[in-house]
Amino acid sequence: MKRARIAYRGEVCVAIASGGGLILPDGRAITESDALFLPPVEPRTSFALGLNYAAHQSELGFKPPEKPLIFLKGPNTFVGHRGETPRPPNVKLMHYECELAVVIGRAGKNISRADAMDYVAGYTIANDYVVRDLIENYYRPNLRAKSRDRFTPLGPWLVDAADVPDPHALELRTFVNGELTQHGNTRDMIFDIPFLIAYLSEFMTLSAGDMILTGTPEGVKNVEPGDEVVCEIERLGRLTNTIVAD
Fold first, then answer.
1. What is the pLDDT of residue 179?
2. pLDDT, tens only, 103-142
3. Quick one: 14 exposed, middle or buried, by C-beta within 10 A (0-12, 13-18, 19+)?
4. Which residues pair with 73 in a beta bridge?
């Protein structure tokens, strides 16, 4: 099942995807264009992975990390499907990062790799923008580069884990103004989902609603105000976003 958090006529609710439209909790059917899409999960603790695809590491000129490069993202960074992301003035390179986002379904600590996938509620698409100019040291991701307001579009759907039999075999694509600019597959992740859940839960409790953004493949490109960026992940849908001037 695919669910969306939306605002409709002044109220926030969870709607179900159905035949190209949405079904509200009271059973009414509306079109997607009638709704304001919000991030499909109310942001809690959100973990983001750097350099989790080997080809992307080579693209940026970095060596593979020995352990996961993980940083936190605040709730201010998230915006829903069809939202706008501001490009700061006087920057040279700002690019998208299409990523599979894993949503935790129940609390757990010291979770084993063997049990890790039982803690996944579902998946959504994240586009984790970065201002490359502002990264001083990639092994310590800079807050100014990655955690700006509305810098991480999320959605449109939360797709149940049961509807994604193998999250490690999903095609990822990004289109800028209709042109395919990024293409990869989640099978190329260096640290897979069970490893990441086990790794994080060794030292902290994971809670329902927490998210893990699993990194991006190669193919990043500069974006400018007016650009429409679409991130697509097999089985999860298409996340659309527009760049605006800050």
1. 98
2. 999 999 999 999 999 999 999 999 999 998 887 665 566 7
3. middle
4. 46
- Helical ranges in the chain per DSSP H: 54-60, 143-146, 193-201
Residue with tokens 């990869």: 184
Q: Do residues 208 and 42 make contact, with C-beta atoms less than 8 angstroms apart?
A: no
Residues 83, 31 share a domain: no
d(CA 109, CA 241) in angstroms, rounded, equals: 35
Let me know: does 99 contact 128? Beta carbons within 8 Å: yes
Q: 56 is in which domain, residue-wise? A: 41-245
Same domain? 15 vs 47? no
What count of other Cβ atoms lies within 10 Å of the Cβ of residue 9? 9
Tokens of 221: 């490109």
The pTM assigned to this predicted structure is 0.94
CATH code assigned at 13: 2.30.30.370
Could you give the CA distance from residue 242 to residue 101 in angstroms, rounded to a whole number? Answer: 20
Q: Where are the beta strands (DSSP E) in the chain?
A: 2-8, 11-18, 21-23, 29-31, 36-37, 46-50, 69-73, 78-79, 83-87, 94-95, 98-104, 120-127, 130-131, 152-160, 171-176, 179-185, 211-213, 228-233, 237-245
- Side-chain-side CA neighbours of 139 within 13 Å: the count stands at 7
Q: Positive or negative, the Cα torsion across 108, 114, 118, 120? A: positive
| pLDDT surpasses 60 at 13 | yes
The helix/strand/coil state of 168 is coil
**CATH, residue 133:** 3.90.850.10
